[in-house]
Design brief:
The structure holds two protein chains of two kinds. By secondary structure, chain A is mostly beta strands. Chain A contains no helices and ten strands. Chain B has a domain at 18-94: Immunoglobulins (Immunoglobulin-like, Sandwich), CATH 2.60.40.10. In chain B, strands 2, 4, 5, 6, 9, 10 and 11 form a seven-stranded mixed β-sheet that branches. A four-stranded antiparallel β-sheet of chain B has the order 1-3-8-7, with no helix packed on it. The model of chain B has no long low-confidence stretch (mean pLDDT 92). Classes of the chains: A mainly beta, B mainly beta. At the A-B interface, strand 3, strand 4 and strand 9 of A face strand 4, strand 5, strand 9 and strand 10 of B.
Chain lengths: 116, 114
């Protein structure tokens, strides 16, 4: 029978290329955003974060861009390497109060495959 | 190297059995999360604690799931009775309760209910 499940967006790149992974968020009360990398068989691993009072933040080979007007987040990976192959999740943190205070909500993820 | 520790890493159990998953958050972190990951639903938040008090467990099936923090160094997630549809990876995560602070994940408990 036909398999049913999440159809994650996929991105295939060649080693050395730059990668851009996009994420749309819905909660305008979120003021802190995180990108996680999840390798097969492991838990999500923190990559980079950004607060809502910033629109860009750079790390080592990674850059996160935040556009609050359209509620869009992107992760740029420079000189992508085979070891970057994983599922990448964006997450947003809600500080609007009540029981949602500090709650971290994840997007569905993007599969990145890097070909040597 | 501080990290979130989860046990068991892998569990195969028969339908109807009780399953208990344990988590030791990073020392000093006062928020603890339980997530479930499946191919069908992705990462779903089951329960969320702040200073050991449950803040939000709306994502958790109440009839069979329960989550507690007996003390600051231990969080538990119980399923009783377990069903095949509970087969998933269960992640615990912890973080400090401050704006702009990330949360850190354990390696997960891989549960198979047959």
């Amino acid at each position: 029978g036909e398999s049913v499940g999440l159809h994650l967006p996929t991105l295939s790149v060649q080693e050395g290329d730059n990668s851009i992974i996009n994420c749309a968020y819905s909660n305008s009360a979120s003021d802190y955003f995180i990108w996680y990398k999840q390798e097969s068989g492991k838990g999500p691993q923190f990559i980079i974060d950004i607060r809502s009072n910033m629109d860009k933040r750079q790390g080592q080979r990674v850059t996160v861009l935040l556009n609050k007007t359209v509620k869009h987040l992107s992760l740029q990976i420079a000189a992508t390497q085979p070891g970057d192959s994983a599922v990448y999740f964006c997450a947003e943190k809600d500080w609007s109060g009540g029981t949602s205070y500090g709650k971290l909500t994840f997007g569905q993820g993007t599969i990145l495959t890097v070909h040597p | 190297d501080a990290r979130v520790t989860q046990t068991p890493r892998h569990k195969v159990t028969e339908m109807g059995q009780e399953v208990t998953m344990r988590c030791q958050p990073i020392l000093g972190h006062n928020t603890v999360f339980w997530y479930r990951q499946t191919m069908m639903q992705g990462l779903e938040l089951l329960a969320y604690f702040r200073n050991r008090a449950p803040l939000d467990d709306s994502g958790m099936p109440k009839d069979r799931f329960s989550a507690e923090m007996p003390d600051a160094t231990l969080a538990t997630l119980k399923i009783q009775p377990s069903e095949p549809r509970d087969s998933a990876v269960y992640f615990c995560a912890s973080g400090p309760m401050s704006s702009g602070n990330t949360i850190y994940f354990g390696e997960g408990s891989w549960l198979t209910v047959v």
